[in-house]
Every structure is written in C-alpha cells, then in structure tokens.
Amino acid sequence: MHSLRVTACAALLVVTLLVFPIGAAGAVVSASPAPPSGSRVVTVTCVGVGDLRVVLSADAVPTPAIELPSGVSLLTAYQATDSRTSTTVSDTQRGDISCGQVPVRGVRFGALSKLPPPAGVVGTDRFDGAISISLVLEAPSLRAQAVPGAGIPFPFAAVLDSYLATRSGRVSVAVFDATTGVTYSYNAGTQYVTASIVKVAILGTLLSRAQDARRGLTSTERSLATRMIELSDNNAATALWNDVGQGPGVKAFMNRVGMPSTTPGTDGLWGLTTTNAPDQVRLVRTVAFPNAVLSDASRKYEESLMRAVTPSQKWGVTGGVPSTATVALKNGWLPRTGGWVVNSIGHVSGGTRDYAIAVLTSGDPTMSYGITTVEHVSGMSWVRLPHSGELQVVAVTSTGLWHTIRHPGGSWIPAGDVAAAAHITGTVLNVTAASSATGELLVVAVTSTGLWHTIRHPGGSWIPAGDVAAAAHITGTAQNVTAG
Fold first, then answer.
1. Where are the domains of the chain?
2. Whole-model pTM?
C-alpha cells in the first residue's frame, strides 16, 4: 500500500487535489484507461477532530484504515464522470464532520457507492471524479447507572432545570468547590465528544511523561503546547497527540488522573475522545490544585497557558464571572449536522470562590447559541454555589421574620421578609435555623398560628412553609423550638 496525505487549509476544509490512479486491472470499455492494481491509504484531516487514514481501492467504497471510536461511522459521497458515456453521477449526502475530498481516477462504480449503479452504467465502466469523506456521530446516551465521582446534586438544581428547559440540546455540568471539598454535578451520565477540550489532557500527558523521564519540555514541545492551548491549533494538537503515543498514551495519563468514563479517540482522531462532566472536572483539578500526578511546576505551566488563551476564545466558563477573578480555561467546539458541540472547562478563582468547572453541551443550533447556554450556566455557578465563610442571620422583630447574609468581606445583603417569601402566617414568636452542607438554610418558626418549616435555597428562593405540627402529629400550642 502507498500512503498519501490530504491536508486542510481552511475552516470549511479545502483539499489540495492529489491526482493519482487507483484500482485493479480489468477490462476496459471505450476510452477508459486501465488502472493499476492495488489500493492506497490516504490521510485526511477531519475538521476539529484530527487525522483519519482511509483505504481507497478501485472496486470498493473507502473504508477507515483503523477501527473508529464507538458511535462513529464513515460516510462517503461522490461526484464522478463515466469515462465511457461522459455521464455524471453524484451523491451529495454528508455526515456530521467533514474530512474533505479525495480525487479518484479509473475506478468502478462500486468504489463510489454500495448501492446498485444507475441505469446505463455497466460493470466495466470506469469513473473519474472525487469522493467526499465525512464522519457520522451518534447522539450521546444518558447512562442510568451511577457515575464515578459525580458527587451530589447542585443546591440550585431546580433553578438550573428551569433554565435548561428553555434551551435546545443536551447540557451537563460538574463543579468541584475547593473551598468546601464538595463536587456537584448535573446530568453526570451523559457522554459528549470532547472536541478541543481534550487538548488539556494531551498537554497533561506530555508533562507527565517528561516528569517520568526527569526532563523539561523541549523548545519545540513548548511551542506546540502554546499554540495548542492558547490558539487551539489543531495541527499542534495532532503533533503532540502523535508524540505522546496517541490514544493509548493519553489513556495512561487519564487512568492516573482518574477518568474512568473517558475514552480517547482512535488513531489520529483526538477530537473524538468521549467523556462526561465529572471526568473533565477531575482533569481540571489535576491542573488547578496540588496532586500526585502533575508536579507543581508542570500544572502551573499548563494553567498559565490556559489563562493566556487568545481573547476571541475567552468565552465559556468566564460567563457571569467578575473581571477581578482569574479564569484558566479551554474550550472546544465542533459543527455537526445534528447541532453544534460546545464545551468549556476551567479553573475559576477570586474572592471566596475557588472551583473547577466543566460545562458540556451538544445539539446546539449554532455555536453562539451553545456559548450562551454555557455562559449562563457558568454565571449560575459563580452566583449560586454556597459561599464559604458566609454568616446567615434569621431574626424575629416586632415587624416580622427577617433573613440576611454577611459576606466574608464584611458586606451585608438587604434583609428579606421570610414570612412573606415562605407564606408563613401569624405573629412570629420564636425561630431556629441551621445550614446544610449544600448551602441550604433550614428554618423552623413558631407563630401564633402554629409550627412552620421552610428552606432557603442557595440561589435565594424559599420553598412554601409546611405545617410541622400537622405533618409530625404534634399536639398542643407550640411555644418554643430548637433544631439541629
């Protein structure tokens, strides 16, 4: 077999035509030239996901030279002219990810399509033209089983549900809050194609291997790493992916990190790595916080590149985060016929906040639509995650039942009327309150009408008060209350 490369030179993959004969010896009709025997392997660049090797022959449709990742299949289309009749035949179907066109000459119709040939085409006819190659991705599946490291539901899950119900596509979120040590997740079981966020793992693999060899990165490796992270350069990613041993090399690093739900793409297809949000948060934690996998020098180097991404790519988990905070991030985006993949992972720190976050989406109508979803969810996380060091106060006064919060910096939020927000009736006589590990405030109040219980979610909403005496069969007039 002979190997050729077809490269992309634009976002909508423009392929430089490489005219070469391919096929097997056989009968020739009219002026069709007899093609040489054998088959060829060409390497094509699939937009946003890496390189794919394809086997071409004169009598069979192109096939991948390697086993494709689970849920990924090869789709071909063609436009070619019959050398005997000068008739043009075509099939314009396209998959999710374009891998460009490969010119062909002197091939039988069976090399263009598995379907029966159109009327007028005979078995010995030969065709000249081009075959378009693309990849089809199955929709991600929601796994029913427990997901390792998923943590607990977000304290603002109801608000998140309400927002995402208005949005198209699929969304998963995970956050590790370093101030509390708690991991939160939403739709943890859904699998996504990583697109370019896998570049964080590629660099992590390179750094880990350099550590094991007790060496620093070479100037070439540093140049490639900078281009790959700061500019999201796909050629640099392909070079480093190959350098670290492609999928098996990256998987070894992921095993050390603890990413059991992530499967690297096969061969040169780094962007078709599949993952979930909890695994991506563990990856970001390995870059953001001290650990046994990456040295402080290695992880600080990688995070410095993630903080320096080009301004046009500083969207995503920066959404809703004040400019005074520090964000180290990597985004990934991939156009698909079934909707865009738009992902963002990063480390956000500032004030009392310090967390690793991953927001993964698919099925977005446009890239900008997906960015809007990711940034709104990011803003929710910044605002609604429990604050370490906050003081919540519930007070009974002659005018009612009030709630306020003192932030660690010393500022107080304006007091809110708990009785009005939670629909508590009667004159408040006594109250007790306690905070949960997830940032909820549980309040039990004695009023002239009974014993009431309500909960304040971290986002600020109160659930309607419930009658504790009725629910728990407490008799008599309540006069005092304690809870813990």
1. 2-137, 152-384, 391-472
2. 0.74
